[in-house]
Amino acid sequence: MVSEVKTVVGRGIPLRGNDIDTDRIIPARFLRCVTFDGLGQQVFADDRLHDNGQHPFDQPHYQGATVLVVNANFGCGSSREHAPQAIAKWGIQAIVGESFAEIFFGNCVAMGIPCVTADAETVNRIQTLLTEDPQTKVTVDLDAMQINCGSFTAPIRMGDGPRMMLTTGTWDACGQLVSHAEQVRQTAAQLPYLNWTHLSAV
């Protein structure tokens, strides 16, 4: 079944600071894992250790948040897919920021995680609202291209291509194959270089 991503609703978590790179998101020592399972526990591991329990990802009132609100050039540095995977495994389903590193952005879209941008004033306002009241509901709406944080509403931006991939579900290659399994089977059966009878039996 194709997974369309049109709206993400949940509580938000503010993470202030520009140029937060992928090594801070998931330190290199955790890249030796065979699967991405368990990476969520190690997201921002060194920053959290340094902050001694005061990092937003450790504070009890932000547990269960699904929308991460960041500043400029988030996800810069190495291209490791483990960075968005760790964020997603922690529970984040959408990221709002001033700007994102290109490869990080692409990795997120390939996982079905929208990364939308807003101006610095809007991002700071949302971060402040979430600091003052962590229970505030946040809605990221890719159809209306706006974000709601409590009673505050502002426009958000995302390129037409990535936005269409998310809202139509075409980001999800595996889902498309499964949902079109019969069409794939019929096409493969017509290919002279495939022994489809043998493949069907596997």
Write the SSE topology.
Layout: E1 7-14, H1 22-25, H2 45-51, E2 67-69, H3 82-90, E3 94-97, H4 102-110, E4 115-117, H5 120-132, E5 137-141, E6 146-149, E7 152-155, H6 160-168, H7 173-179, H8 181-189, H9 196-201
Parallel strand pairs: 1-2, 2-3, 3-4
Antiparallel strand pairs: 1-5, 5-6, 6-7
Question: What can you see in these coordinates?
Answer:
- The chain is an alpha/beta fold.
- It folds into two domains: 7-171, Aconitase, domain 4, CATH 3.20.19.10; 172-202, no CATH class.
- 36% of the residues lie in helices and 15% in strands.
- It is built from nine helices and seven strands, in the order βααβαβαβαβββαααα.
- It has helices at 22-25, 45-51, 82-90, 102-110, 120-132, 160-168, 173-179, 181-189, 196-201, and strands spanning 7-14, 67-69, 94-97, 115-117, 137-141, 146-149, 152-155.
- The chain has a seven-stranded mixed beta sheet with strand order 4-3-2-1-5-6-7.
- Strand 3 (94-97), helix 4 and strand 4 form a beta-alpha-beta unit.
- The longest helix is centred in the middle third of the chain and has 13 residues, at 120-132.
- The protein is globular.
- The two termini are 22 Å apart.
What is the alpha-carbon Rg in Å? 19 Å
State the shape. Answer: globular
**Name of the CATH homologous superfamily of the largest domain:** Aconitase, domain 4
How many independent structural domains? 2
Q: With helices defined by DSSP (H or I, 4 residues minimum), what is the helix count? A: 9
The arrangement of helices and strands along the chain is EHHEHEHEHEEEHHHH
The major pleated sheet works out as:
7 strands, mixed
What strand line-up does the widest sheet have? 4-3-2-1-5-6-7
Query: Mind telling me which CATH architecture of the largest domain this is?
Result: Alpha-Beta Barrel
CATH-defined topology of the largest domain = Aconitase, domain 4
Low-confidence parts lasting 5 or more residues at pLDDT below 50? none
Binned, the helix content reads 25-40%
Write down the CATH class of the largest domain.
Alpha Beta
- Rounded to the nearest angstrom, the distance between the terminal CA atoms is 22 Å
Structural class: alpha/beta
Number of strands: 7
What proportion strand?
Answer: 15-25%
On the 0 to 100 scale, the average pLDDT is 89
